[in-house]
Amino acid sequence: MENQKTALITGGTSGIGKELAKLFAKDKYNLIIVARDQAELDSTAAELGSDDVKITTIAKDLSDMEQAKALCSEITEQIDVLVNDAGQGVYGLFTENDLERELGIIHLNVCATVILTKHFLKEMVNRGNGKILNLGSVAGKLPGPWQAVYHATKAFVLSFTTAVREEVKDSGVTLTALMPGVTDTDFFNKAGMNDSKAVQDKDAMADPAEVAKEGYDALMAGRDRVIAGWKNSAEVHAANLMPDSTVAHQLYEQQKRVTKQ
């Protein structure tokens, strides 16, 4: 295990992050999994643990910038793969949502991604190898009323990943953006989005294991980005042909609250 590669995964106790952790463990990567809840971390470690893989858990709230910086300082192992998966959203009209909640989302989705990427990318570039997977979303290509701040953070992640990838293209390090659509995770429940029209059809939601596999394969192949699922890819390509105002109106209708009978 001492000679194995190590993957650091934030938000690795549920959803796409947990499924990615399973894939890395299957390929004999040692894991450092970061999440807020120690009990969930312990449960995930017990589920993934084996004689072939070392699993380290670290409880941090990465929406707190000091804790995000502290995480970088605490990790002394060589990180071969960084997965910035931790992220949150909040559902509702921008004028009605709580400001502190939205600032916390920006801190987590944007600032923590920048902090961790800067720290570990420097180390990777100095070594001449490494991989980073940033969890974007098709939301990053679509202005999203009812989730205005979340969609904007994912636009940042995509732009940031693409730009930094170009900067280090000759270094031996690759950055990849995974862009899922509506996926069957706890994201929507935590975002208070269960009343949205967009999540009423549970059967239409993507399987997080399938999304993770698409992202994992793209990461290992060194690709710049992958839109998970052909329907999501078609939606993004169609949106590229329309004015942003038209796309925003369509998303407003798709994501508005279901009318109670």
Ends distance: 58 Å
Overall pLDDT level = 91
CATH architectural group: 3-Layer(aba) Sandwich
CATH topology: Rossmann fold
Give an account of the 3D structure.
By secondary structure, the chain is of the alpha/beta class. The chain has one domain: Rossmann fold (3-Layer(aba) Sandwich), CATH 3.40.50.720. Helices cover 47% and strands 14% of the residues. The chain has helices spanning 15-26, 38-48, 65-74, 99-127, 148-167, 187-190, 208-221, 230-239, 244-255; strands at 6-10, 30-35, 55-59, 81-84, 130-135, 173-179, 225-227. Strands 3-2-1-4-5-6-7 form a 7-stranded parallel β-sheet, sandwiched between helices. Helix 1 crosses helix 7 (208-221) and helix 4 packs parallel to helix 5.
Task: Record keyword descriptors for this entry.
NAD(P)-bd_dom_sf, SDR_fam, SDR family oxidoreductase, 261 residues, Rossmann fold, seven-stranded parallel β-sheet, oxidoreductase activity, single chain, alpha/beta, globular, oxidoreductase
